[in-house]
Amino acid sequence: MMENQTWIREFILLGFPLSPRMQVLLFGFFSLFYTFVILGNGLILGLICLYSRLHTPMYFFLAHLAIVDISYASNNVPKMLENLLRKKKTISFGPCIMQTFLYMAFAHTECLVLVMMSYDRYVAICHPLKYSVIMSWTVCIVLAVVSWACGSLLALVHVVLILRLPFCGPHEINHFFCEILSVLKLICADTRLNQIVIFAASVFILVGPLCLVLVSYIQILGAILRIQSGEGRRKAFSTCSSHLCVVGLFFGSAIVMYMAPKSRHPAEQQKILSLFYSLFNPMLNPLIYSLRNTEVKDTLKKALWRKRTM
Questions:
Q1: Most exposed of 132, 189, 264, 305 (fewest Cβ within 10 Å)?
Q2: Contact 121/176 with Cβ under 8 angstroms?
Q3: Higher-confidence residue: 4 or 189?
């Protein structure tokens, strides 16, 4: 494995083929978006950690989603911002492979965390009397550990399959980070096994979880329609609709990207899709949850009021 890789020093990230002026403009926009990702998700994470009223399974999984989003964006965006201002847009072999591993690990983990969140809402709305028993803290911790472990192991499989093959050049990655499909294009060997594993992983980590989420929300919709109280029905629907927005954005862009390993989408279209789940989706998550969730808004108001009166 290592004999094939020892002569490879670095890759060139082609990024966005735009004029220097446009790249500076993109640097400003993406820096602003990245700041929103860190501040928004950090705010939600801080509120959940500091206020006991948010120490529930729902917000436990939301905290993990915030951690994944911060990590996910921080793995890809800083290097992209750096290259927007540099003429020599290079990345060393080791950091590139590590970026691929972390990108896949965080993406897989987010898929599974979203499934856990949908299951939590299903139990809360369809089986409210058994909620505290079914969603005990032991169960929540086990589900979180399984999500992170499965995400990391699947990513490790992808990386090991890449490292067993030789890279022959040209060492130009037509992307703004070391995205796995773009890296595979640089390999001068048969990558059919890699493509099969990517497709199988997509079915397991995208189609399977999406089906589970949809089944959960079909059950939830039926339960919401049976709620007698108009206020209760509105609150339940508001919480679940925000979750469905996140699911639609994340799973939709990822399925379009990876369900066909030999993608027919133009390279620039792939970069735009990658921006959705690398930057825009992590930025929208805290906005969706904070603006459409009464408990988060009330806790934030109390935190601001307490700080003002100190």
A1: 264
A2: no
A3: 189
Cβ contact 147:276 at 8 Å = no
Largest interatomic CA distance in the chain: 69
Distance CA 290, CA 297 (A): 6
DSSP-derived letter for residue 204 is I
Q: How much is the pTM?
A: 0.87
Report the C-alpha gap between 167 and 4 in whole angstroms: 7
Q: What is the pLDDT of residues 27-85, one digit of tens each?
A: 999 999 999 999 989 988 988 888 888 888 988 999 999 999 999 899 989 988 988 88
A 10 A CB-CB count for 260 gives 15
Does residue 206 contact residue 31 with C-beta atoms inside 8 Å? no
Rg (Cα) of the chain, in Å, rounded? 21
Tokens 């299951």 sit at which residue? 119
Residues 6+ away with beta carbon under 8 Å from 70: 37, 38, 41, 42, 45, 282
| Interval 254-269: pLDDT, tens | 887 787 545 455 667 7
Separation between Cα atoms, residue 254 and residue 156, nearest integer Å? 19
Burial 95-130 (b: 16+ CB within 10 A, else e): ebbebbbbbbbbbbbbbbbbbbbbbbbbbbbbeeee
